[in-house]
């Protein structure tokens, strides 16, 4: 059974953003293609066109580099969630718009995030390299997506569109009823590739609104 290793605690250089991005991109490609154990720091440095010393100066060790790759993918996905919230769940004038907006948001998340290469990368890395991450089931996104949705539901409650005394619970239940159902039943929530996703999402939104709608 693999032993979880503790990433370095040495002081690291902030360095050049361009070099850092190149190292992360190279490490991501190699970890996915060859696996963590078979990927050397020398190979990462060569792919990124930097020195081996630069990789160590920026990331300290290979475990910390893997964690940084996973974190970078998670941050990209969080950015997608926040952008989608702003695009679809902002400026709703009345309750009549709420169902369509929640369906649109859910379908965008199912396609732009859960159907993305970033999501597939995160899943592969976390599953394959769990023994080399800080702990089993390590999730760089943690509760951030749920909290972002909860913040929006709290705003809806303040505007009288939802009755949500516990916005975080409402967010958790919303996720479970929409993308969660699709993932559990179909193994995927990629609405762009599976026409069965949308009916599940629509019914999930309607079930959620039956519980939380104020009208």
What does the model show?
This protein is mainly α. It has two domains: 13-60, Orthogonal Bundle (Arc Repressor Mutant, subunit A); 73-212, Orthogonal Bundle (Tetracycline Repressor, domain 2). It is 65% helix and 0% strand. It is built from ten helices and no strands. The chain has helices at 17-34, 41-48, 52-59, 62-88, 98-113, 117-128, 144-158, 167-177, 179-186, 197-212. α5 packs across α10 (197-212). The chain is elongated, with a radius of gyration of 20 Å. The termini are far apart.
- Helix content percent band: 55-70%
User: What proportion of the residues form beta strands (DSSP E)?
Assistant: under 5%
Number of strands: 0
Class based on secondary structure composition and strand pairing: mainly alpha
Distance between the termini: 55 Å
Main sheet: strands, sense, barrel: none
Count of the separate structural domains: 2
Number of helices: 10
Oligomer state of the chains in this structure: single chain
CATH architecture of the largest domain: Orthogonal Bundle
Radius of gyration: 20 Å
Q: Which overall shape is indicated by the principal axes computed on the Cα atoms?
A: elongated
Please, what is the CATH homologous superfamily of the largest domain?
A: Tetracycline Repressor, domain 2
Reported by name, the CATH topology of the largest domain is Tetracycline Repressor, domain 2
Order of helices and strands: HHHHHHHHHH
CATH top level assignment of the largest domain: Mainly Alpha
Low-confidence stretches: 1-5
Mean pLDDT: 84
């Amino acid at each position: 059974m693999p032993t979880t290793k503790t990433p370095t605690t040495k002081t690291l250089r902030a360095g050049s953003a361009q070099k850092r991005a190149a190292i992360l991109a190279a490490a991501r490609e190699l970890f996915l293609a060859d696996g963590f154990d078979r990927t050397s720091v020398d190979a990462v440095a060569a792919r990124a066109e930097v020195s081996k010393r630069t990789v160590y100066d920026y990331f300290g060790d290979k475990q910390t580099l893997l964690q940084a790759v996973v974190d970078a993918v998670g941050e990209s996905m969080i950015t997608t969630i926040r952008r989608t919230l702003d695009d679809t769940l902002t400026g709703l004038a009345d309750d009549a718009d709420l169902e369509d907006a929640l369906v649109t948001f859910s379908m965008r998340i199912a396609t732009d995030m859960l159907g993305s290469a970033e999501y597939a990368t995160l899943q592969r890395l976390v599953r394959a390299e769990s023994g080399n991450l800080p702990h089993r089931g390590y999730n760089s996104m943690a509760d951030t997506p749920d909290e972002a949705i909860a913040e929006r539901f709290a705003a809806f409650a303040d505007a009288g569109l939802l009755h949500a005394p516990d916005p975080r619970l409402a967010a958790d239940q919303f996720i479970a009823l929409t993308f969660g159902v699709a993932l559990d039943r179909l193994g995927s929530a990629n609405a762009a590739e599976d026409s069965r996703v949308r009916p599940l999402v629509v019914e999930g939104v309607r079930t959620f609104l039956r519980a939380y709608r104020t009208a």
